[in-house]
Specification:
By secondary structure, this protein is α+β, with helices and mostly antiparallel strands. Among the domains are: 158 residues, Methane Monooxygenase Hydroxylase, Chain G, domain 1 (Up-down Bundle); 99 residues, Alpha-Beta Plaits (2-Layer Sandwich); 61 residues, no CATH class; 92 residues, no CATH class. 49% of the residues lie in helices and 13% in strands. The strands form eight sheets. Strands 1-15-2-11-5-6 form a six-stranded mixed sheet, sandwiched between helices. The protein has a four-stranded mixed sheet with strand order 20-21-23-22, with no helix packed on it. The longest helix is centred in the last third of the chain and has 76 residues. It binds adenosine-5'-triphosphate (ATP) and magnesium ion. One of its GO terms (molecular function) is microfilament motor activity. InterPro entries: Kinesin_motor_dom_sf (IPR036961), Myosin_head_motor_dom-like (IPR001609), MYSc_Myo1 (IPR036072), P-loop_NTPase (IPR027417). This is Myosin motor domain-containing protein.
């Protein structure tokens, strides 16, 4: 709500209670105009209270946008509010909808009802109730609404409807109370007005068969009760389609076919009755002029024609013990006829409401909560105001009294609850006017009843005189005779004026007595009818009762007392409807009209009552929450209780002690200006605050992002580290395992292969092989280089060594040139011949053989060394095993049978000579290096060399 305070200069103030000049009608009007111009559809007169009273003035600025586009949001919001409060507090509520004719009361109430129909929980059973509740409206409107000069669908009765809800909030039933149906409309309408819709609907929309059965023609002009206003047809009303709606509604509400027939028979009979005319006979008494109507009346009402005829032209008088029929004059007969029409219609309407209630009744006796909708006429002030306006305005006085009681009561209760002293405030208590009207033996109604009931010639004027007598000095009663000169000019002789709380209304007494009496002659009431409804409405026991029936005013008074009791037990909510102009013009704000409504809706008085005491109150938490930026101590956060916070805040704002009061849970501010000053300060502060909040928010967002990123980084880091640590741990565990296995393997290395040493041995093998690979002998002759193998590799090592040696040999051999090969082969041959047989052979191995030159014809060997020479000899002879090493000397066969010997020895100088034994002696010098064949004992045998 506070949010709307700031734009108050332009759009006005939503809560009228906060108007500074709340006593000024112009200020109220001004505010309404602003709200109207801004298309702000409703004006709340105090939604500030947590519960209790919410007012609204419906203003429909645009007639083009008519049909509820505008007023709806408020109606729905209010309906919703009431519904929720009812559910949470499980108590009963009522919504009082008031306003002058055509202001939108009925529309608002229908929309509220529709809201409940749509928003309440739905089940098959509840939907049935919902349909009946909704459809009760068109039926009631058909029988109780009519076109008037102010409204084409004017409700001609007051309506209070209870909607009953179960504990789940489902609409389970309803009950309707009707007040003061304007029966006189049946027999008389002002120019431009119509009778109740149902007559036109029946004539225009009724099926041919039905009309035939009812003896009606499809022409409204044929019925004198329908043509007095000379506007049987209205462009805004579609009687035909409305008829269909009503027919459908009646069947949904489960009216029996026979009841529906009886109902239409009554409607038709009223039309026939209207066409009955009388002529004066020779004595001046009334006689019936036409019989067809009587025939139809008799048929439709189920009363013998004779009885009707007599009833319409005679009155039954009791003279001593006898009953005598006294004939009517024509005027009296017309009066009796109209009275009968009104009575039939009026009672049928009551029957209809009862039937609807039957249909809406919830048979379940479990506890229910109730929301009542009171669609009731507001103050009526016409140029001529009669008995009806008197009753209606009296009703409004009663409602005002109820309002005062409920408002002050709830205010007082709230003050008490909050521990705030109640200060009595000046407001106008209209009890004085209510008493003026209703007080027993003294009030206007009493005087009127007295006048109606007293024997003798009582007239409206005698009634006025009585009033004068009794009310003479009353401050709220003015009469021509008693008025001052100036006032007297504004009053007719037959007028009296009441100073209602909302304003003055002048009433003309003409017809008061008649209307109050609502006289129906006994012989008409006595008839016994075959029409079920008539039978029910005019029970045969009634005429026997000698007691006079209650007058209309007294009945109305009692029904209002009943209504007040009903309402007093409920929580009130108010909807005040206003119309901006009479012509339904879009955007037109008729100052005079609105001012008139403001006055007669009693808004000024309402404001005064509502402003009794403090204009504004708010729970501490809410107040502190909104205004805490205005004080450095409370902003941004207040650490103590909300009440302390508010105390600190208002001190900082400089509230004067008499400007506010601290309740138990709420702060009360006396003048709106104090609140507005606070609100203005808040408005200024808001922008700065917005920037700060924005900055903070941005910072917060960025910080949030940063924190999220940091968190993410930490998370990733943690995961990564965790993963690394886990890997490390796994590695270590693995290493420990490996080392353990290694040690165990080492310890068991010499045992036969088993699980424990398999790996170790494999490692040893691999390790040995790897190292071996790096340390292989480089040459074939390198016999020393070979890694000592671990015990398990002994055998393999040997095999490898062999393999490798062979490999090297092979490589060596493959790399040897042909010449060298030949040379080596010779060497090989030498080895095969001499190895192991000659002691000095190994010393010759390293000495290469030089090439041999062989001269033609003879073998000429020129060798430095014997081994070489011998080998070559073998080669030449191609006889490798011809050489035999023997000890001492070499024997050879020169010719068969002749053999020679060569002896070898070493000496000082080299010489060859024939020794004494005939052997060839070879002396060779003793060389440092040991030569082959240099031993004296060595002999070489050349066997068959050539
Ligand atoms: N809020 C609204 N906005 C626009 N038009 C509306 C609004 N409320 C009612 N009307 C129009 O005004 C007409 C009269 O409304 P409604 O019948 O509700 O008045 P009322 O206050 O019940 O009058 P009465 O006292 O005569 O029964 C409606 O038929 C509708 O056309
Ligand atoms: Mg209405």
């Amino acid at each position: 709500m506070e949010g709307s305070l700031t734009a108050r200069d332009r759009v006005g103030i939503q809560d009228f209670v906060l108007l500074d000049a709340y006593t000024s009608e112009s200020a109220v009007l001004d505010n309404l105009r602003k709200r109207f111009n801004e298309n702000l559809i409703y004006v709340s007169l105090s939604p500030t209270q947590s519960r209790g009273i919410t007012y609204a003035a419906h203003l429909y600025p645009s007639a083009v946008l008519l049909n509820l586009y505008i007023a709806l949001p408020f109606s729905y919001a209010l309906a919703d509010n009431v519904y929720r409060t009812m559910l949470t507090e499980t108590n009963n509520h009522f919504i009082l909808i008031s306003g002058e004719s055509g202001a939108g009361k009925t529309e608002a109430s229908k929309k509220i009802l529709q809201f409940y129909a749509v928003s309440c929980p739905s089940t098959k059973l509840l939907d049935n109730v919902r349909d009946r509740l909704l459809l009760s409206n068109p039926v009631l409107e058909a029988f109780g609404n009519a076109k008037t000069l102010k409204n084409d669908n004017s409700s001609r009765f007051g309506k209070y409807m209870d909607i009953q809800f179960d504990h789940m909030g489902g609409a389970v039933g309803g009950h309707i109370l009707s007040y003061l149906l304007e029966k006189s409309r049946v027999v008389h309408q002002n120019h431009g007005e119509r009778s109740f819709h149902i007559f036109y609907q029946l004539v225009e929309g009724g099926e041919e068969d039905l009309l035939r059965w009812l003896g009606l023609e499809r022409n409204c002009q044929r019925y004198s009760y329908l043509v007095q206003g000379e506007c049987a047809k209205v462009s805004s009303v579609n009687d035909k389609s409305d008829w269909k709606t009503v027919r459908k509604a009646l069947s949904v509400i489960e009216f029996s076919e026979s009841n529906i027939e009886s109902l239409f028979a009554i409607i038709a009979s009223v039309l026939h009755l209207g066409n009955v005319t009388f002529v004066a006979d020779s004595q001046g008494y009334a006689t019936l002029n036409n019989s067809p109507e009587i025939h139809w009346l008799s048929k439709l009402l189920g009363i013998p024609a004779q009885v009707i005829q007599v009833g319409l032209t005679h009155r039954k008088i009791e003279a001593r013990s006898e009953e005598v029929l006294s004939p009517f004059t024509v005027d009296q007969a017309v009066y009796a006829k109209d009275a009968l029409a009104k009575a039939i219609y009026g009672r049928t309407f009551t029957w209809l409401v009862n039937e609807l209630n039957e249909s809406l009744a919830n048979k379940d006796s479990s506890r229910k909560t109730v929301i009542g909708l009171l669609d009731i006429y507001g103050f009526e002030v016409f140029s001529v105001n009669s008995f009806e306006q008197f009753c209606i305005n009296y009703c409004n006085e009663k409602l005002q009294q109820l309002f005062i009681q409920l408002t002050l009561k709830s205010e007082q209760e709230e003050y008490e609850m909050e521990g705030i002293e109640w200060e009595s405030v000046p407001y106008f208590n209209n009890k004085i006017i209510c008493d003026l009207v209703e007080e027993k033996f003294k009030g206007i109604i009493s005087v009127l009843d007295e006048e109606c009931l007293r024997p003798g010639e009582a007239t409206d004027m005698t009634f006025l005189e009585k009033l004068e007598e009794k009310m003479g000095g009353h401050a709220h009663f003015i009469k021509h005779k008693l008025a001052d000169q100036k006032t007297r000019k504004t009053l007719e002789r037959g007028d009296f004026r009441l100073l209602h709380y909302a304003g003055e209304v002048t009433y003309s007494v003409v017809g008061f007595l008649d209307k109050n009496n609502d006289l129906l002659y006994r012989n008409i009431k006595e008839v016994s009818s075959k029409n079920a409804i008539v039978k029910h409405c005019f029970p045969s026991t009634e005429p026997d009762s000698k007691k006079r029936p209650e007058t209309v005013a007294t009945q109305f008074k009692s029904s209002l007392v009943g209504l007040t009791e009903i309402l007093m037990s409920k929580e009130p909510w108010y909807v005040r409807c206003m119309k901006p102009n009479e012509g339904k013009q879009p955007g037109l704000f008729d100052d005079v009209l609105v001012r008139h409504q403001v006055k007669y809706l009693g808004l000024m008085e309402h404001l005064r009552v509502r402003r009794a005491g403090f204009a504004y109150r708010r729970r501490y938490e809410i107040f502190l929450q909104r205004y805490k930026p205005l004080c450095p101590d409370t902003w941004p956060n207040w650490k103590g209780t909300a009440a302390e916070g508010v105390e600190c805040l208002v001190k900082h704002l400089g509230y004067k002690p008499d400007e506010y009061k601290m309740g138990r849970t709420k702060i009360f501010i006396r003048h709106p200006r104090t609140l507005f000053a606070t609100e203005d300060a808040f408005e200024v502060c808001k922008h700065e605050l917005a920037t700060r909040i924005q900055a903070k928010y941005k910072g917060y967002r960025v910080k949030g992002d940063y924190m999220r990123q940091r968190q993410a980084a930490t998370k990733i880091e943690t995961c990564w580290r965790g993963m690394k640590a886990r890997r490390e741990r796994e590695k270590r565990a693995w290493a420990v395992k490996v080392i353990k296995r290694f040690i165990k393997g080492f310890m068991t290395r010499n045992q036969p292969a088993c699980v424990d040493n398999t790996d170790y041995l494999a490692f040893v093998r691999q390790n040995y092989l790897t190292r071996l690979k790096e340390n292989l002998p480089k040459t074939v002759v390198d016999k020393n280089t070979w890694l000592t193998p671990p015990p398990i590799m002994q055998e393999a090592s040997q095999m490898l060594r062999k393999l490798y040696t062979r490999h090297m040999v092979r490589r060596y051999v493959q790399g040897i040139m042909t010449e060298r090969k030949a040379q080596l082969q010779i060497k090989g041959l030498t080895s095969s011949i001499f190895k192991g047989t000659k002691e000095n052979y190994p010393h010759s191995v390293g000495i290469p053989f030089v090439d041999t030159r062989i001269s033609k014809g003879d073998l000429v060997l020129q060798c430095d060394y014997l081994f070489e020479a011998l080998t070559k000899l073998c080669l030449v002879a191609n006889k490798h095993n011809f050489i035999k090493v023997v000890q001492g000397s070499v024997k050879f066969d020169i010719q068969p049978g002749r053999e020679g010997f060569v002896d070898f020895k070493s000496g000082q100088e080299t010489m060859i000579y024939r020794a004494k034994n005939g052997h060839l002696m070879v002396v060779s010098m003793k060389l440092k290096t040991v030569w082959p064949f240099n031993s004296q004992n060595e002999q070489i045998h050349f066997l068959n060399y050539y």
